[in-house]
Design goal:
The chain is an alpha/beta fold. It contains 7 helices and 7 strands, in the order H-H-E-H-E-H-E-E-H-E-H-H-E-E. It has one domain: 3-Layer(aba) Sandwich (Rossmann fold). It is about 35% helix and about 25% strand. A 7-stranded mixed beta sheet has the order 3-2-1-4-5-7-6. Helix 4 links the parallel strand 2 and strand 3. The mean pLDDT is about 95. The protein binds S-adenosylmethionine (SAM). S-adenosylmethionine binds next to helix 1 and helix 3.
Length: about 200
């Protein structure tokens, strides 16, 4: 319940919304292709993917988060299938796009989680990983806030995020465990966050 409330609040922050929108726009428009958002929380990436034309399912292991995701999407007139689900147990070759935003960092076994996500991507599809980088420090977050060019709504969420993630990020070396696939990196939020798109042949 607390996680659902916290992430509903954070997902309403201007900077958080904007960086995730930019990340979703790294993928082409959906034309009804299938997007699976794993660890959706209250569903921000799922909603952005639906607005980009994808048919979307969001899954999360936390029931209150799924409840919140259903409520928010419904209030915005978006038709998204939110269900309880586990990142470690995904059906193989199931979606054209799989996204995982701030999921790997909270998984006890990050490499196993990444392998499961990758296995679930259809051939010709893509995996989108969104995670803070090693630039996500309290000092850099404070500098960015003081520069004053980010939306102000719930900007204090950036301080909280940096303080939670500083020194505990997902290192990009993890993508090497996928073998030959190359991860294309795009800096988001002035490089404090990264978007990695990994395409499957
Ligand atoms: C840090 S939150 C991120 C939520 C959302 N993706 C975002 O970017 O705002 C991580 C989410 O992953 C979910 N989660 C953790 N372990 C999971 C697992 N094994 N399978 C599915 N979801 C999981 C949590 O319940 C939580 O909602």
């Amino acid at each position: 319940m607390i996680a659902a409330m916290l992430f509903s609040w954070l997902q309403g922050a201007g900077f958080y919304h904007d960086l995730h929108k930019q990340a979703v726009e790294l993928l082409p428009p959906g034309n009804s292709k299938f997007w699976l958002d794993v660890g959706s929380g209250p569903g921000l990436v799922s909603r952005l993917a639906a607005q980009r034309g994808y048919q979307v399912m969001g899954i999360d292991s936390d029931a209150p988060s799924i409840q919140a995701a259903k409520l928010i999407a419904g209030s915005q007139g978006l038709s998204i299938d939110f269900r309880l689900g586990d990142a470690y147990h995904l059906p193989s070759e199931t979606a054209d796009v799989i996204s995982a935003a701030s999921l790997l960092a909270v998984l006890p076994d990050r490499e196993k989680g990444l392998t499961s996500l990758w296995r679930a991507v259809r051939s010709g599809g893509s995996l989108l990983i969104i995670e803070p980088t090693d630039q996500m420090t309290t000092e850099n977050a404070e500098k960015l806030i003081q520069q004053n060019d980010l939306p102000r709504k719930r900007i204090e969420g950036l301080r909280m995020w940096a303080s939670a993630r500083q020194g505990n990020i997902v290192t990009p070396a993890i993508f090497e465990s996928l073998g030959t696939a190359t991860a294309k990196f795009t800096p988001l939020l002035h490089g404090l966050v990264g978007g990695w798109v990994i395409s499957k042949a």
